[in-house]
Design brief:
1 helix, single chain, Spermidine/putrescine ABC transporter periplasmic spermidine/putrescine-binding protein
Amino acid sequence: MARLDSTLAPNLPTAHVADQITLDFAYWAKNGSDIATRWNEWLVK
């Protein structure tokens, strides 16, 4: 099996694991709709 060209490795998502954030999907499931409403109301002001 051929391996990935090493010049591509820096462009893969796993190359930046230390800089990634983890989303709290339970929070967004609970609050996402309200946040989107508030955001859109602010945006049109």
